[in-house]
Amino acid sequence: MTFTLESGAEGRWTNGGSTHAVICVNGGTAAENDGTWSASVEWLVRRLAPRLPRLSFLEVRYRTKSWRQFDRCVDDARAAIGAARTGGAERLALLGFSMGGAVAARVAGDPAVSHVLGLAPWLPPQLDLEPLARRRFTVLHGGLDRGLPGLPGVRPALSQDGFARALEAGAEGSRTVIAGAFHAIALRSPRGRLVPMPRARRWEELVAAELERFCA
């Protein structure tokens, strides 16, 4: 079910109505383009929702998916948290892909949030990670991730440094590098079909294990 969030962004529920919800936020680019649904996040949600029926998934489509509009993306994520809590969710996990990892870290201080998953997360040195204190922070990163001409990427070393800073800020958790995986988990074909990238099933297994811990 797709609806408009208070910020003006769009949200999309899968398995709505649970007391445990996962807020899913996308990456971004330098170009200030209109928001899109993340192929990587959408592929994961489609795989995980039947597997974890006790969890609600709320995907966020930013108004503008750009790190030049980072604060607006943060506002969109906060609006999604508000919508989830209004809808009856009592405990929240945040799942952030790429730039969404930074967005998730910024909004993690909400008292309903207990778990944060960063998938190939962009965690620049200037990002305040204090909101992750007393949260479980799980980082997954493709071993072959890097920026390529025309394609965004995040080098694993950036999330390694960010994860260490998160632990210093009071988070606890784990970081796993997925050998043979690139930045994206899935891509969208010109006809709209979701195409999994190499090692996509490994991403799925690791995310599922962490979400099972969240809803236990």
Compose a concise summary of this entry.
This protein is α/β, with parallel strands linked by helices and 216 residues long. The protein has a single domain (2-215), classed as Alpha/Beta hydrolase fold, catalytic domain (Rossmann fold).
The stretches of 5 or more residues where confidence is low (pLDDT under 50) are: none
Q: What strand line-up does the widest sheet have?
A: 1-2-4-3-5-6-7-8
The CATH architecture comes to 3-Layer(aba) Sandwich
Assign the CATH topology.
Rossmann fold
Q: What is the assigned CATH homologous superfamily?
A: Alpha/Beta hydrolase fold, catalytic domain
For the biggest sheet, the summary is:
8 strands, mixed
Count of individual domains = 1
Shape: globular
| Helix amount | 25-40%
CATH level 1 name:
Alpha Beta
How would you classify the helix and strand content by structural class? alpha/beta
Keywords:
8-stranded mixed β-sheet; two-stranded antiparallel sheet; Rossmann fold; alpha/beta; 216 residues; 10 strands; 31% helix; globular; single chain
Protein topology:
Blueprint (H helix, E strand, L loop, with lengths): L1 E3 L5 E5 L5 E6 L13 H13 L3 E7 L8 H17 L4 E7 L1 H9 L5 E7 L16 E7 L13 H13 L3 E7 L7 E3 L5 E3 L3 H16 L1
Parallel strand pairs: 3-4, 3-5, 5-6, 6-7, 7-8
Antiparallel strand pairs: 1-2, 2-4, 9-10
Helix pairs in contact: 2-3
Q: Your description of this structure?
A:
The longest helix has 17 residues, at 70-86. The chain has one domain (2-215): Alpha/Beta hydrolase fold, catalytic domain (Rossmann fold, 3-Layer(aba) Sandwich), CATH 3.40.50. It is 31% helix and 25% strand. The protein has five helices and ten strands; from the N terminus they run E-E-E-H-E-H-E-H-E-E-H-E-E-E-H. The chain is an alpha/beta fold. Helix 3 links the parallel strand 5 (91-97) and strand 6.
